[in-house]
Design brief:
116 residues, mainly alpha, 4 helices
Length: 116
């Protein structure tokens, strides 16, 4: 039951990520945004998506909400890292970038669970 809810929460997080990234791609195409605003937007997309997934997990499971939200954030990061590695064929992130992304994902998921 809990695993199924985590998977549903992950699906929600990735669905939101996909929609927001499509919107961002459209805005980049239409407005010719620079690298810095796009990097900030991608960071915000990671955090907001993990928060939504953590919120759903915390709302549905109803016990230790922040832990389940954090687990959604960890799973989000692991899948994100696996897909990045699979598409690039090699690890192309620095250690600092990897740790920062991990903390943003787990923090967003935990925060979402706490708000549930």
């Amino acid at each position: 039951m809990k695993i199924k809810m985590i998977l549903k929460s992950l699906f929600l997080a990735y669905l939101l990520s996909g929609l927001f990234l499509l919107l961002l791609a459209f805005l980049v195409f239409r407005l010719n945004l620079g690298v810095r605003p796009v990097a900030v937007a991608v960071t915000a997309i990671y955090v907001v998506s993990c928060m939504a997934g953590g919120f759903l997990a915390g709302r549905r499971i109803q016990q230790d909400k922040y832990r389940w939200g954090g687990l959604v954030g960890i799973c989000y990061f692991l899948l994100l890292a696996a897909v990045s590695f699979a598409t690039g064929g090699r690890w192309n992130m620095t250690l600092i970038h990897t740790l920062t992304t991990f903390c943003m994902c787990i923090g967003g998921g935990t925060l979402g669970g706490m708000f549930a």
